[in-house]
Amino acid sequence: LLTLVSPPPTHQPSGSGKTSLITHIIATALSTPTPSSAIILIDPLQHFSIPLLTATLLRLFTSTSSPPPPPSTLKTLVKNALHHLHILHPPTFPSLISTLRSLPTYLFSPSLHHSTHRRIHSLILDDTDAFLPSIPPSTTSASASATLCFHLTNLAKSLDCALITSTRSTSPKYFRPALPTSWPREGCEVRIALRKVEAKKVGAGMSVEEAEAERDKEERGNGWCEGWRVGGRDHEGGGGGGGGGGRGKGLVIKIDKQKGVEIGEKK
């Protein structure tokens, strides 16, 4: 059970790296030949980028083969991998619950897709907080959370797959999901806080060329994000007002539209 949490939009309105990290997880799973895997992605805001996933798959297929496959083979590998990513876009909380209830029927229907012979690597719910406004007035957030967690954990158990969710936090200091979660006690949640590393500001020590290069990176949609582990009763914050810390060195996420998403260890 993996939860990705970013600061609230008032603190950091632009991308924090949640969907980019999800892209890397999906690409890694789909590019691994054994065991062959399929992914279920629920993407209510339609933030997920197929071009970025394609670029990441191309880099992974190229870097893990010696010599690298020819372009025609790479194209086939990527196309086959994309066949096994199943993206769903329920727009409201009630439709999300209906989608989760109907997933087993869909997954075990060979006439609907080509992944029935593959194991489900993970069930991913991106932007969980997007469903908050559509929770029925007669339902409390605690009740909605309990219903959602019940369906997600039951599905993950029946499919024997990983469960990944992402959300905004309610505070820039404490990385708690905007929609409170009520996972089973036996569930072992790993929570990763993520934030965008802002581009360098123009300063006395920066040349015009360096400033233009930073601006070009932003315009091309390239950038860096960082993440670190948080969570646990005595470890809710990221340290320094959400500015870092946590367990271990953390990770860095490099986003490049041409090369895809790369993950490294924070030094």
TrEMBL record:
Bias kind Gly residues: ranges: 238-249
UniProt superkingdom: Eukaryota
Gene3D superfamilies documented for this protein: P-loop containing nucleotide triphosphate hydrolases
Residue ranges, annotated region (Disordered): 224-251
Cross-referenced InterPro entries: P-loop_NTPase
Protein name, per record: DNA recombination and repair protein Rad51-like C-terminal domain-containing protein
SUPFAM superfamilies (UniProt xref): P-loop containing nucleoside triphosphate hydrolases
